[in-house]
Amino acid sequence: MQDERVLPREVEHTMFRIAQEALANVARHSQAHRVDVRLDYTPDRLSLTIQDDGQGFDPQQITAGVGTHSMHERAAMLPSGALTLETAHGHGTRMTVQCQILMDLLMPDIDGVEATRQIKRLSPRTQVVVLTSHHDDEHIFPALRAGAISYLLKSVKMDELAEAVRRAAQGEATLHPRVAARVIHELQGAKRDQEALNPFTELTDRELEILKLLATGMTNHEITTHLVISEHTVKGHVSNILSKLHLGDRTQAAVFAWREGVVRRE
Predict the structure, then answer these.
(1) What span, in angstroms and rounded, lies between the C-alpha atoms of 149 and 167?
(2) Which residue of 69, 111, 179, 209 has the fewest CB atoms within a 10 Å radius of its CB?
(3) How far is CA 55 from CA 76, 83, 150, 182, in A?
């Protein structure tokens, strides 16, 4: 078999048992001449299809011995698993089982982060939910940057995990509180870094406007006339500018504004 892919043991066992029961039903009840079995393994989903050309049946009149009830139960054990039956008298039966794929963040050939990146590239609408014991920056941020919509820790309760999967299907994110705290800390740090690179972030729009006029050589009186505000207001703004930029006088402020590119020569 070329390009063989390894399934999680629980998924492989459950799919095998469903296929086993389905084929047993075909042999016992369908009177089919042909049965096709197809297993599709896409980046985000596993699908098993078994179709026969037998006599079909009425789904509303299934007896306990046919075994579809146990197959439905097994399918429900799979991650977001679902089993559908298409059948009618004289038209054969088609059974499809689908489930989402679970993968480890740490895998030998390709890790979960790279797999997430490939999944999002090949199938942008597919949502990836990370469930892991790792809550350090080295795992959180690469996974989120790769495209994971949610990041949960293995301490999460089963009902919370199920809800997170349902929310992911609707395009809504879920982050474990520890992970959310790290994300907020990272964003706040990025904001501080940006502010450190831009010394004018503390200035109001009006103060920045006055700094530009001051740098062109305008006096307080000229700024008053230009902006149609009182000279007392202008003096207050200039005082705030000097304080926020830690400068001694308006001359230093003008030089600083030119040096930092607030104003440019035309």
Answers:
(1) 10
(2) 69
(3) 27, 20, 45, 59
- Can you tell me the distance from the alpha carbon of 56 to that of 31, in angstroms, rounded to the nearest whole number? 9
Beta bridge partners of 175: 151
* CA nearest neighbour of 143 among 122, 119, 166, 125: 119
Alpha helices in 107-249 (DSSP H): 112-122, 137-146, 158-169, 177-197, 205-215, 220-227, 231-244
Helix or strand holding residue 38 (H, E): strand 35-41
The overall longest dimension of the chain from CA atoms, in Å, is: 101
pLDDT value of position 107:
65
Determine the CATH number of domain 9-100: 3.30.565.10
Answer whether residue 64 shows pLDDT above 60: no
- At the top level of CATH, the class of 205-259 is mainly alpha
Residue 198: both structure tokens together:
């831009």
pLDDT of residue 151: 92
- pLDDT tens, position by position, 171-215: 899 999 989 988 888 877 665 655 555 677 788 999 999 999 988
Mean pLDDT of 157-169: 84
Rg (CA), the chain: 32
- The third-level CATH classification (topology) of the domain covering 112-197 is Rossmann fold (3.40.50)
29 three-class SS:
helix
Q: Rounded to an integer, what distance in angstroms lies between the CA atom of residue 183 and that of residue 12? A: 35
User: DSSP 3-state assignment of 153?
Assistant: strand
Residue boundaries of the structural domains of the chain: 9-100, 112-197, 205-259
- Whole-model pTM: value is 0.44
